[in-house]
Amino acid sequence: MATSNSSNTLSSTFYLTGIPGYEEFHHWISIPFCLLYFVGIMGNCTILHIVRTDPRLHEPMYYFLAMLSLADMGMSLPTMVSLFRVLWSISKEIQFNICVVQMFFIHTFSFTESSVLLAMALDRYVAICHPLRYATILTPKFIAKIGIAALLRSSVPVIPLLVRLAFFPFCHSHVLSHSYCLHQDLIHLACADIKFNVVYGLVLITVLWGMDSLGIFVSYVFILHSVLRIASHEGRLKALNTCASHICAVLILYVPMIGLSIIHRFARHSSPLIHIFMAHIYLLVPPVLNPIIYSVKTRQIREGILHRLLPHKN
Questions:
Q1: 285 and 32 in contact (C-beta within 8 Å)?
Q2: Rounded to whole angstroms, how far apart are CA atoms 22 and 39?
Q3: pLDDT by residue (tens digit) across 23-44?
Q4: pLDDT one-digit tens code per residue, 274-286
Q5: What's the CA gap between 183 and 8, in Å, rounded?
């Protein structure tokens, strides 16, 4: 029986949703989404190219920034094709297996981005609190291990949630709430006991995001304690300014992430537009704003970009 359910589920087709009530404007609505995806892709590709090609940026801080750009693109790009297929009226259908792959990338890179932000907080802590040991602690080998650990820590725990979906019967509606697949959206369409997925998903979010946010908070407690011991006002501002971009990146990720989770769990019957708006903010705002923030606030990145655009000018 379980095998039959699994077989039926694997061959299931689900239907994505655009912007309810505004179907006749979908083609126009796609224009700002095109611009956002373009800005996000170009911005993150620029960051990756600058970090790779500029020897001055071959430092831990910029390696972590490159990881953040990869996580940003890994979280947003899987949604691009399905979103524009819906908005351009090509097709609203999505097969279950494609839906699961999309969910895997979205949730994995969402957790990965949070882990990278924790690593960047560690980078700022070492740079400010232990500057003389910075190069010996954050070696390229250690940074590579952090990146691999962040990816494994984010991907492996997601697998049990997605595997269980294959054994759920979906005997009622197959209409999803978004133009892409999210686990918390799909499980509510199942005609089965979803308690494990709900509890496990909540525990997973609490543990991973909770540990990351706690680690970031503790890092900044030590950073603030160290900064306050700097004698000059100018020195304190300079030290804190190196953390400004990271703090913005943390807020850009966590605020929409927490908002979307709260809405899916405690405001399921609110307006669909709220769900869709929050989901798009959660997936598109970090990839778009992070490169802009780091380009504006980080002199080395800004100089690297200008050097590529105006190679004959200093």
A1: no
A2: 25
A3: 888 889 899 999 999 999 999 9
A4: 778 888 888 888 9
A5: 19
Q: Among all chains, which residue has been given the structure tokens 């970009």?
A: 305
Compute the average pLDDT of residues 13-18.
88
Structure token pair of residue 169:
């019967």
Q: Got the DSSP string for 225-276?
A: HHHTT-SSHHHHHHHHHHHHHHHHHHHHHHHHHHHHHHHHHH-TTS-HHHHH
Q: What is the pLDDT of residues 159-170, one digit of tens each?
A: 999 999 888 888
H/E segment holding residue 13: strand 13-15
User: Are the C-beta atoms of 96 and 174 separated by less than 8 Å?
Assistant: no
Tell which residue, 242, 212, 216, has the closest CA to residue 227: 242
Q: pLDDT by residue (tens digit) across 239-271?
A: 888 888 899 999 998 888 777 777 766 666 667
DSSP letter string over 111-173?
A: HHHHHHHHHHHHHHHHHHH-GGGHHHHS-HHHHHHHHHHHHHHHHGGGHHHHHHHTT----S-
Within a 10 A sphere around the Cβ of 307, how many other Cβ atoms? 16
Neighbour tally for 86: CB within 10 Å: 24
